[in-house]
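so the lab meeting is tmrw and i was supposed to have these ready like two days ago... anyway. pasting both below. for each one the top line is the aa sequence and the line under it is the structure tokens. i havent really looked at them closely yet so no promises
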Amino acid sequence: MGKKKLRGMVIVSALSMIGFTVTACAADEAAPAGSADPAVSGQIVWADYGGPTNEAFQEVFFAPFTEQTGVEVVPTTLAASVQYEMLEGGAGDYDTMMTGMAEVVLYSDNLVTLPAGIPRSDQLSADVAEYTIATPIIGYAQGYLTETFPDGGPQTWADFWDTETFPGKRAVPGEYSDFMFEAALLADGVAPDELYPLDLDRATAKLDELKPDMVFYTEYPQVQQLLSAGGASIAFSPNGQFAALKNAGLDVTVSWDQALVEANPFVVPSSAQNQEATFALAQILADPELQADFSRRTNYGPSSSAAFEHLSDDEIAALPNAPEHTDIIWADADNRAELYDEMNDRYTAWLTS
């Protein structure tokens, strides 16, 4: 059976499932809010950061969904001003948008829970999975061109800070902290099981040590440019940037030792205008076989463990949440939510100091 035909069957089956859920609840006055109508229409405004990840979403999920339903998925570059207005309950154009786990914890009152019948991610805690319709699993790791360290490169965050053994500039985020505080604490000897709650004073002091050897990027694709052009010997980045270099034919090594792992979920804000169609799309986003195709293209992990059944051993090994990666560290969304503003303020001040 061809992949196009298979995807069509998946979509029809998914829409039928949604229709069954709505029909079954029609006489129930307590039917869950946001349950989808099988006769979906209009368009879905999808907000993310663009690039190869968005292209993979379009090719794997959006194109067949639009072909079967007539609903166009319109990608747009995520604007923080619109994102936070909607997270805080205000109006905006997005039907679904990418965000972080801390934001889900902080703003869940203004997010729509998934209707019955839509599979939840089994890679997230149940209370968070209730709000997420697509949850690529991201690894914030260090990576480098293999030829840069032919005798073996850095493995741990202590190695990342060791510019004598592993010389060269370090590419790090120059706008948002991402997980630099965690990396700094691990480099300073904090045990993974004692990482949270974060000691921001200690982390900032450790960041100061490496600052003369850092180069800063403000957009993720700049990671690829810095490594390929020799502007940095090692980069701290979401692992998808390393996958893009591999897809371009470069030999890249990624260290999963103490990599910080988190979902970058897509959520449906309460003010979203086309929730019905968005939840129809959510059924497709949850399909394990399509998730495997997405992971194969991006090296971001699937939100369903069943997707691993459709991937080879080598393909699984490239994913952050591969079962064999026993040394990864799942980020603590609750602690990061508590420190949300302070982390942003601290990192911004540190960058300009």
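ok protien two:
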Amino acid sequence: MRARRGQRVPVVVQGRGRRRTGARVLWVAAETVVTCGVLVLLLVVHQLWWTNQEALAEARDQVRVLERQWEAPAPVPGAVPGGPSPSVPRPEPGRPTGAGTAPEPAPAGSPDTARPGSAGAFAVLRIPRLGLAVPVAHGVSKRSVLDRGFVGHYPGTAAPGRTGNFALAGHRNTHGEPFRYVNRLVKGDEIAVRTRDATYTYRVDRILPRTAPRDVGVIRAVPRSLVQPSYGYTAPGAYLTLTTCTPEFSSAYRLVVWAKLVSTG
């Protein structure tokens, strides 16, 4: 059929709407990918930098708190600040002094006698080669100890300076990473553990570069690897054990450093 003169014939163009819709989809997808990338980057920054700053600040503050407490004179039981000194009661006639009146104090340097700070820390670990000064707290809980930048004392292991194995754990990466560079320690390096009662100096003796996380033999009273029996000891002594993850940014294995007590001051 022919169109009449002066009458317009409509022309239908197909495909433009589809092209616009496809472009919008691609644009939204690209924005989503960029947003996800930014979020992942922020998460990495938070884990690798911000958690370190928070944990380092708390750990350093706790070291200062502990050392201020230790340097202050011990309070006298019953004493009132600014008041007279309490009188010392005289023993009753016929009653033996000290016998059955109070339990015997725990051995000096044991965790029971340590006066923890606000976060439960009871000692300060110093490693001069690494420039490290970090608080030591009871337990190896990530949330309450390790993730706060502290070093954790394995439950059931010896107290500092005592016969047995004073075993510690710390993060290699993130959350203060106190044991980031323990792989740089060599035989003969000194490690100091200070409590309210004394400072115990250990000397690095042996290093186990890699073992399985399940290798509980490394923290026993006489430490010896169950995975690699050639590493460890056969005789009792006063040992210090440092454990951390290896390689860096992985928890596949454990790095172990053993030291022996050389002096108490």
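from a quick look at the 2nd one: The beta strands are 121-127, 132-138, 151-153, 164-169, 190-194, 199-211, 238-246, 253-264. The chain has one domain: 19-71+108-265. will dig more after coffe
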